[in-house]
Amino acid sequence: MGRPLIHRSPMPGLGLSMGITLTMLSLVVLLPIGALLLKGANYGLEGIWETVNRERVWAALFLSFRLSLLAALFNLVFGVLLAWVLVRYRFAGRRILDAAIDLPFALPTAVAGIALTALYAPNGTFGHIAASIGWKIAYTQWGIFIALVFVGLPFVARTVQPVVEEIEREVEEASATLGASRLHTLRHVILPMLAPAALTGFALALARAVGEYGSVIFIAGNIPLVTEIAPLLIIIQLEEFNYDAAAAIGIAMLLISFAMLLAINLIQIWSRRRIGHV
């Protein structure tokens, strides 16, 4: 006989919990995506392509996904580093820093955008310093990048932090006892253990950055073909009651996001299998 489709748990309540899970999944994920695809189907492939295949749309899509990917990669490196420092070291202000990581979760995105703009505008605290060396941050792609880093960093740090707490120091000591250098221990012992969680945090940070609107809109400048993001184009189409065009751009973002997340999941599977064979 083949394997059963459902591995039942000794605890009761499978039917109820499965029903609640599928209901919430349908309401939150499947129905909105289905409505978007249905709107696109009514618009037709020719209409979708005609809407998307414009210089302004391609520029916005390229800008959004490029900066989102770069910000997620930045957060992947520094989020893992931050999680490691917070878990393994004790220093003054550690608890304050640990609490500050969650600030982007609690802060409304519009408030975050206004605060970042005030800090990095040419007359702001950091923007004034940057302007003195000829570097403009606000109303450029640098400003968008900083905003995306700000909203995405907690996803990586909070995902990796519990895994770092579970890694016992004896693992590092055993590696050192066997003659491994610190770099060898980091590459072949620590990083493989952190890789699945780090990639999960990377995927979450990337997904958040791709759809981010509130914290970016104030600091971006919103110049077409330069600093205009794809979510802003969707908002513009909705304000003009051009729902078909908004759905077309949304479908383009959905397909690109799905391809990127699929690639990340494949890397995660490869990483887990590699760890399992080491």
From TrEMBL:
Transmembrane portions of the chain: 12-38, 58-87, 99-121, 141-160, 216-236, 248-270
Pfam families the record matches: BPD_transp_1
One function term, GO molecular function aspect: ABC-type sulfate transporter activity
Domain ABC transmembrane type-1: 61-264
One of the record's GO cellular component terms: plasma membrane
SUPFAM superfamilies: MetI-like
Membrane topology, record value: Multi-pass membrane protein
Protein function: Part of the ABC transporter complex CysAWTP (TC 3.A.1.6.1) involved in sulfate/thiosulfate import. Probably responsible for the translocation of the substrate across the membrane. Part of the ABC transporter complex (TC 3.A.1.6.1) involved in sulfate/thiosulfate import.
NCBIfam families: 3a0106s02, permease_CysT
Name assigned to this protein: Sulfate transport system permease protein CysT
Coarse class of the protein's main subcellular location: membrane
Entry's localization field: Cell membrane
UniProt-listed PROSITE patterns: ABC_TM1 (PS50928)
Keywords attached to this entry: Membrane, Sulfate transport, Transmembrane, Transmembrane helix, Transport
Record note on quaternary structure: The complex is composed of two ATP-binding proteins (CysA), two transmembrane proteins (CysT and CysW) and a solute-binding protein (CysP).
Top-level division of the source organism's lineage: Bacteria
Protein family membership: Belongs to the binding-protein-dependent transport system permease family. CysTW subfamily.
Gene3D superfamilies: MetI-like (1.10.3720.10)
Source species: Gemmobacter aquaticus
